[in-house]
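Q: Hi! First time doing this. I have a protein sequence and I read that you can turn it into a structure. Is that right? Here it is:
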Amino acid sequence: MSTKPSYYNDYVQILKEELITAMGCTEPIAIAYAGAVARETLGDVPTAVTVSVSGNIIKNVKSVIVPNTGGQKGIAAAAAAGIVAGEAKRKLEVLSQVTPAQIEYMKEYLAATPIEVVPVEQGHIFDIGVRVSAGEHSAYVRIVDFHTNIVAVEKDGEAQTVENSGCSEEMTVALTDRAVLNVKDIIAFADEVDLEEIRPILSHQVECNMAISAEGLKNSYGANIGKVLLNLYGDDVKIKAKAWAAAGSDARMNGCEMPVVINSGSGNQGITASVPVVVYARELGVDEERMYRALVVSNLCTIHLKTGIGRLSAYCGAISAGCGSGAGIAYLLGGGYREVAHTLVNSLAIVSGIVCDGAKASCAGKIAAAVDAGILGYHMFLQGNQFVGGDGIVKKGVENTIENVGRLAHDGMAETDKEIIQLMVEG
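A: Yes, that's right. Below is the predicted 3D structure, encoded as structure tokens:
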């Protein structure tokens, strides 16, 4: 390719920023990460801990098992795990090297150490603060907006430099502006990108996410949605795509300690955006190059759909990823801009509005529904059917429909989000 289009480098960078490895549900892992940095900054094992979190963090941590904790759930368990056994330099894999002895010590630490959880609303939907103390010394770490974005590290009330904070890199990370994304350019980029620039992250996504999905089908996790789908409906490729994606979430939401390559800050979204495309490619014998280019479409469409919604909201993120996977499958099977655009509009019209009530076993069911909508949206178009502007939230043009969904989720569902959180807190 002689001259790269203006968006080219931004799209490569967006994939590198979003497709990163995490072990465990990313909100409790972010708490564990903050706890690990706080302990390293303090330089001692804390005897008192306060975790201040926004409502959406409460929602996404309350019901999910924190990996490598012996099956424990919740904010206090996540903070204790990071403090006792976390390695801050591993970021979203902060709990990947926990030993059995540390798990036992963690339980003792939780029983002996006061860990106060304080709800806060400071203008950030994603907000985590961990304050620790031992003797006369204290430390504080704050993460906002996304999972590794540390904006403050203090020791004894004084701001710390990077070298003294327990962090090995810059604390505040500026992400590439997602406004550069649009469906037409995503398809053009998928057609022309030099795969060697992104093959390592895509191959790692395939390896990790297919492995945890296989584990979810092999053993019993949560409500076993993946197994239920295969047992009930058989092994048609459309069923397999839903079942394998759901099984990855079955395992991940219920304590499986295998890594996942995430998308838009979420392992469930990373699984949903990738696994159905891989299942289709392998079942139908599509070559690896086309599969990788289809993964570019599914991942970037998912990120594009999520941009207007935000990292956390009352709108289930799996919907964006399921619709993104439908777009990836459309491209995989020979579709171009027209097929992908109609697939997105059709699928968004079907499932937009499914609520996020936190990370837990039922996420797998929502993933299955989202992938089903993505596949249905594609086949609707193949048979000459579509939803058109004026059908509910659908507007003429895929970008206008995506903008409407962003408004619905970010603005329209803000009060819904508060009510969901209240219901869960009362729960």
